[in-house]
């Protein structure tokens, strides 16, 4: 019984400590994103800010329909970073309308 308890303490406490860390949430609507409008610039701005955070971050695209022309999201990030898409993100069906014409809709590097 004592062995099981010690085993649990060594594995459960670090897990709880990791998940108890504060996570900064970046909701794109707080940065000016509007449903139906192009969120590319807002997403890029929020991504850069989240990459500089020293604690875990989560970027949230809330429920709704969002248009994204093209996004090139680059790090490196200083701490864990999560992108949570709760809504529907749509692109123009014509790939020739991508601003950079590189054939990539969303690129995440580093």
From TrEMBL:
Keyword Repeat: no
Database matches in SUPFAM superfamilies: Pectin lyase-like
Signal peptide stretch: 1-22
InterPro entries given in the database record: Pectin_lyas_fold, Pectin_lyase_fold/virulence
Keyword annotations from UniProtKB, A to Z: Signal
Domain of life: Eukaryota
Protein's name in the database: Pectate lyase superfamily protein domain-containing protein
